Amino acid sequence: MQNYYIQAAAKKARAGGGGGSPVDDYNHAYSDGDRTSIITVTTDLASYGGPVSQLVDADFSTNDSFFGGTVVDKEIRFQLLDGAAVFTEATIHHNAYYTPHGYFKWQGSNNGSDWTDIGSSVQIQVNTSVTLTELNGNETAYTYYRLFGTSGNMNSNPYMRGFKFKVYRLE
Q1: 3-state secondary structure string across the chain
Q2: Average pLDDT, the chain
Q3: For residues 35 and 84, what is the distance between their CA atoms, to the nearest angstrom?
Q4: Which of 24, 94, 99, 164 shows a CA-CA span of 20 to 30 A to 11?
Q5: Sign of the CA dihedral running 74, 49, 57, 162
Q6: Range with the lowest mean pLDDT among 67-76, 110-119, 134-143, 159-168?
Q7: Does residue 157 carry a pLDDT above 90?
Q8: Closest by alpha carbon to 32, among 159, 167, 138?
Q9: pLDDT digits 0-9 by tens, 81-105
Q10: How far apart are CA 56 and CA 60, in angstroms?
């Protein structure tokens, strides 16, 4: 994959300064489809379902990952194996509508240790498809993204079935 995601180029394109036309969409290798070979998913949440890698395997109909317990200081981490990218939105797919999950905030990192907050903390509402717009102001390409728990609990039902990511890129 060509690495279009360097921070300077993204900012320059947003300002209208050449380097290609800016595109902010779900039409990217990191966005949708089976991404298990280019995104590694890990979590330290209490897990009761299938492997957490199912969150990026593109099967939103049967593969379930479900979690329980506190979310405080816990994470769902996404490591981008094919170069850093600017994520500007995420959509979470669930099996059904039930009680909302706890509160999380998006964070980005390029080394997996030093984290930068992106947007504000948000309670993960639960429906069959929920869009999280807290990444909208992100202009930085990161190799790691995580949902970091700030308060509340995960509910074991509904099950998380997958994530899609809107990626800012240059065409």
Answers
A1: CCCCCCHHHHHHHHCCCCCCCEEEECCCCCCCCCCCCCEEEEECCEECCCCHHHHHCCCCCCCCECEEEECCCCEEEEEECCCCEEEEEEEEEECCCCCCCCEEEEEEECCCCCCEEEEEEEECCCCCEEEECCCCCCCCCECEEEEEEEECEECCCCCEEEEEEEEEEEC
A2: 78
A3: 15
A4: 164
A5: negative
A6: 159-168
A7: no
A8: 167
A9: 988 899 888 877 656 666 677 888 9
A10: 9
Return the percentage of the chain with pLDDT > 90, whole number.
24
Question: Phi/psi class of residue 14: alpha, beta or left (left: φ > 0; alpha: ψ in -120 to 50)?
Answer: alpha
- Residue-wise pLDDT for 32-85, tens only, equals 889 899 999 998 888 767 788 888 887 766 666 667 788 899 999 999 998 889
Would you say how long the chain is, in residues?
A: 171
Phi-psi region of 62 (alpha: psi -120 to 50; beta: other; left: phi over 0): alpha
| First-residue to last-residue Cα distance in the chain | 13
**Which residues on neighbouring strands pair with residue 164, listed in sequence order?**
91
Instruction: Give the residue-averaged pLDDT of 138-165.
Output: 85
